[in-house]
Amino acid sequence: MTENRGAPWLAVFGAGVMGIGIAALAIGRGVPVTLVDVDQERLGTARRRVRDELRLAHLTGALPRTGPAGELRLAESAAAVADATSVIEAITEAAELKAKVHREIASVVAPGTLRVTNTSSIPVDELAGQVPCPEDLVGVHFMNPPYLIGTLEVVRGPRTGERAMTAVQSLLSALGRKGIVVGDGPGFVTSRVLHRMINDAANVVAEGRATVEDVDALMEGCLGHPTGPLRTADLIGIDNLVDSLTVLHERTGDDSYRPSELLLRKVAEGDHGRKTGRGFYDYGVR
Questions:
Q1: Going by C-beta distance under 8 Å and a sequence separation of 6 or more, which residues neighbour residue 251?
Q2: Which domain holds residue 113?
Q3: Has 150 been labeled as part of a binding site?
Q4: 175 with 215, same domain?
Q5: pTM above 0.85, yes or no
Q6: 20 to 30 A from 136, CA-CA: which of 9, 87, 154, 249?
Q7: Is 16 annotated among the ligand-binding residues?
Q8: Residue 18 among known ligand-binding residues
Q9: What residues does the 3-hydroxyacyl-CoA dehydrogenase NAD binding domain cover (predicted)?
Q10: 98 a known binding residue?
């Protein structure tokens, strides 16, 4: 990749729902991507899943149908991204795993290379304290699907440097996204507010006070929420939501973030939302 060093070349770690979505967004905007995952099965289906995301993005008009598409490369280890100009980690919401991946990334990229953690709840400085060159680390909260949500949280940790802040805004501009800079802390802004609401909505349903459909209809019709909290939970992924709620509960001590028993039951039963075909709603695909 040395010949591309002067142009943007993005590395994305994690070929799960968010990693695939971020890769599709970048490719659709003409930015080449190296997608890294140690899971051979997920990596084996990555091209098809990126292609499917691009098709949906084009159908909805979220990404342009014309213009150059970025190249997609697949890799099994961090060694493949040494020449990346920016790196986004988009693995599961587990602080120890994220720190491990960021240490691997920092060991192969040049100092000064932008390193992004895609997180919905883990404080950036918690990771920065465990990795080299913490000044290169920035948090960005991409939401699902990344090609459809145009405004993102950019989380500046106490150790994040000016060069990294300039680089992340440049990257988001290349991806056609607007970044709003917020302060560090568990859940930042969106998850701290939204996840509590979703948790409460699940508790209301579990208590038998309203149906899933009625909770969403009230929040849409009365308060202007575009999809309703429980349909939003299906879009986020209920398993991801529970992970984030657990982080918030552990780090704030606020019991309102303790994951609802209904959410925990859905995760245990494999009903994780849209990606599994069933969550609070049935999407007809299993």
A1: 121, 123, 186
A2: 2-183
A3: no
A4: no
A5: yes
A6: 249
A7: yes
A8: yes
A9: 10-184
A10: yes
